[in-house]
UniProtKB/TrEMBL annotation, chain A:
It holds the Pfam family DUF6152. Keywords: Signal. Residues 1-27 form the signal peptide. This is DUF5666 domain-containing protein. The keyword Signal applies. The keyword Cell division does not apply.
From TrEMBL, chain B:
This is DUF2214 domain-containing protein. It comes from the Bacteria. Keywords: Membrane, Transmembrane, Transmembrane helix. It comes from Acuticoccus mangrovi. The chain crosses the membrane at residues 29-48, 60-85, 91-119, 131-153.
Length: 126, 154
C-alpha cells in the first residue's frame, strides 16, 4: 500500500512528462510504462461489466486484449463518469498500475481519458 | 451450472448489491461480523478443548457454541449474496471453490457431531472432543484465510 502510494505519487508528479514519453511507444504497442512505474494503455473497449466489488473492462489495445479493473459504482460516479461513458466500442486511454507480470495483461485504472476528458478515480492521490 | 450462476447474477438481490454503495458496504461488513463471531468463538473454544487454561468446558461451550452458530449463519447468508453479485467469476476461482467445500464440510460435520454428542458435545469423551477441536480449529482458520485471499487472486 505504502509502496503503491509512493509509486502513484511519483507517477502523478511525472504524469505530464510520462504521457509525452509514452506517446511514441504507444503507436507500436498499445501501452507503455510511465516514468512512475504505472502504464498508459490506449484501446477500444470490447466488454464492460460494472458494479461491486469493482468494474471490469476488456480493452483491445492494438490487438492485445487487456483486462482493466475500474472503480466500484460510487468511485466511477465521483470521477464524473456517467452511464454510457464506459461502453463497448469507446476509445479509452487508461493510466494505472499493471499486474506484476505485464504478460498477464491486467491493470488497475487510476485515471481514465475519454475524448480528451480526464476522469480521476483516485483524486486524493493526484 | 452456467445457467444457475447466470440466474444468481440476474436475481434482484444480486443486481441491487452490485450497484449499491452503502448497501454493499453493509453487506460485506455483516459478512465480517459473521466471521468474527464464528472464528472468535471457535478459536478459544477449541483451545479450551485442547486443554488450554484447564477450565470447565461446559459453561464456556454454552456461550461460544451459540455464538459460532449465529456467526456461521450470518456469514453464510451474507456470503451467498456477495457470491451472487459475481457468481460466474467467483465460481471459476480455485480459492472460492476450496473455501466453499471447506465451509460445507465444516457445517456438515458440526451438524453431525452435535446430533450425535449434544449441542455442547457433552456426550463425547475428552479425547474425542480434543480431536474434533483440533480439526475444527484448522478448518475454520483455513476458511478465513481462503476468504481473505479472494480479493487478491480475482
Ligand atoms: C456459504 C458461505 C460463504 C460464502 C458463499 C462466502 C462468500 C464470500 C464472498 C463472495 C466474498 C467476497 C470476496 C471478494 O470479492 O473480496 C467473501 C469474503 C470473505 N469471506 Fe466469505 N463466504 C462464506 C462464508 C465464510 C466464512 C464461514 C468465513 C470465515 C470463517 C469467510 C471468510 C471470508 C473473508 C475473511 C472474506 C474477506 C472479507 C473482506 O475482505 O471484506 N466466509 N466471502
Amino acid at each position: 500500500m505504502t509502496m503503491t502510494r509512493r509509486t502513484t505519487l511519483a507517477t502523478a508528479l511525472a504524469t505530464g512528462l510520462g504521457l509525452v514519453l509514452a506517446t511514441p511507444a504507444l503507436a507500436h504497442h498499445g501501452w507503455a510504462w510511465t516514468t512512475g512505474g504505472n502504464i498508459v494503455l490506449t484501446g477500444i473497449i470490447r466488454s464492460v461489466s460494472l458494479g461491486n466489488p469493482h468494474g471490469v473492462l476488456e480493452v483491445d489495445a492494438e490487438g492485445e486484449l487487456w483486462t482493466v479493473e475500474v472503480g466500484q459504482p460510487w468511485r466511477n460516479a465521483r470521477a464524473g463518469l456517467v452511464d454510457g461513458d464506459l461502453a463497448e466500442g469507446v476509445e479509452v486511454t487508461i493510466e494505472g498500475e499493471p499486474s506484476a507480470d505485464p504478460d498477464e495483461r491486467l491493470m488497475k485504472a487510476e485515471r481514465i481519458t475519454i475524448a480528451g476528458k480526464v476522469y480521476e478515480l483516485y483524486p486524493a492521490r493526484s | 451450472m452456467e445457467g444457475l450462476l447466470a440466474a444468481l447474477e440476474g436475481s434482484g438481490l444480486a443486481t441491487w448489491a452490485r450497484g449499491a454503495r452503502w448497501g454493499y458496504a453493509a453487506l460485506s461488513g455483516a459478512h465480517v461480523l459473521g466471521i468474527a463471531l464464528l472464528v472468535g468463538a471457535m478459536v478459544p473454544l477449541n483451545l479450551v478443548r485442547l486443554g488450554l487454561g484447564r477450565v470447565p468446558q461446559e459453561p464456556i461451550a454454552r456461550v461460544l457454541v451459540p455464538a459460532a452458530g449465529v456467526g456461521l449463519a450470518l456469514a453464510a447468508a451474507t456470503g451467498a449474496v456477495l457470491f451472487a453479485v459475481r457468481a460466474s467469476e467467483y465460481a471459476a476461482l480455485a480459492v472460492v471453490q476450496a473455501k466453499l467445500i471447506l465451509v460445507a464440510l465444516g457445517t456438515a460435520s458440526a451438524l453431525v457431531l452435535h446430533a450425535a454428542y449434544g449441542w455442547f458435545m457433552e456426550r463425547a469423551g475428552a479425547r474425542r472432543r480434543a480431536i474434533h477441536a483440533g480439526v475444527s480449529l484448522v478448518l475454520w482458520l483455513m476458511v478465513l484465510a481462503l476468504g481473505r485471499l479472494i480479493a487478491f487472486v480475482g
